[in-house]
Design brief:
about 425 residues, 9-stranded mixed beta sheet, disordered N terminus
Length: about 425
Amino acid sequence: MVCACVDRLTSLAVTPESPFALRRRLPGLISVATDLALAGPTLRTASFLAESWRDTGPGSVAGGLGMAVKVGIDEGFRTLMQALAHAPTRADLERIREEVSTNLALYESKGWLERPTDFHTAPPPLEEADARWKTVSFLGSDYNHLRFESGYEPHEGEAGRDRWLGYENNRTSHAWVLRHRGRPRPWLVCIHGFRMGWPMADLTAFRAAWLHGALGLNVVIPVLPLHGQRKAGHRSGDGFLSAEVLDTVHAEAQAMWDLRRLLAWIRGQGSDDIGVYGVSLGGYNTALLAGLDGDLSCAIAGMPAVCLPSLLEMHAPGQMLRSVERASLDWEDGRRVMSVVSPMHMPPLVPKERRYMFSGTGDRLVPIDHVRRLWRHWDSPKTHWYEGSHLSFTWQTEIGDFVHRALHEAGLLWAPPLRNRT
């Protein structure tokens, strides 16, 4: 496909002697550009399937055309994200290198690299008086929009502190809440993925109406820092999976701060039965939270990443990676700085029998190696491998069955679990 595109592009070349040729040949150039955009995902899909079918480890790939389509959807989304990525300037990269060096020295002096849990200060509980509520209707059912001032601040002396505090929208925390009246009910905290943080996407992805209505749970979906109404860039999630290493550290630290405040608020409502369920970036945060709170009824990590710097290396466009290399940024230093917000550097406090994982065998956004690493770190918990990709999880019906069973085993449901369809 690529060779054919090159041949067509050559035939469409515009010479200086034909100044109006570009207008006549524009449709052909657009067609070539479209084919080139499709060529990358197609070749990567074929290469991935060819390599993966030789894999015999946990979560190895099986499937034919259906799997190829699902993998292709992931690859297409990956290509789009690379095209929209913002390349940092040389000055930005030099500043980032200095910030990483400064914080690495600070974290070493404080002992946080050896004891990452000490990096996470216990936040004050969220009081009812601090919460602001608004009732909103979505697809015929109501949910509550909770807002409160986060109160999070990076540690004194941390590089990037002033910049972080300057993100005005991010100071206010948001969450979508569906709760029952009357007697206390179990709660499920659902943590969304990268680029999400909007009600329609979050409530639909987690099937919140089913969790709340059919399963009888109180449901809260917090908006992660830099997402949704908390965004600091043009798009929800800008600041994650970018060269701004310290913004990601502060975002994860604030996510833990806000989540722990929410958990304290829920417990203040009279319920100690709380599960946490996250997907993608939310799976990462679920695993991280499981290393800070051992009183959770269960932790369900869906498609969890475990190393954000390696995801950046995997998904960043080549131009950005070359700029990072020219600026002499050390990936290893970035990994060490981010270890204070890595689930792989904290032993899980939630007991093994209450840890659950699921992931797609054809996931092209979170590598299967990440999932296997967390699976080993969590001492091989109950795990469901579905025949699909990262983005296909929303229509994989067996995931609902797996989550249902996990919630039942954790004591959050009274109804028997559904029969596993796989």
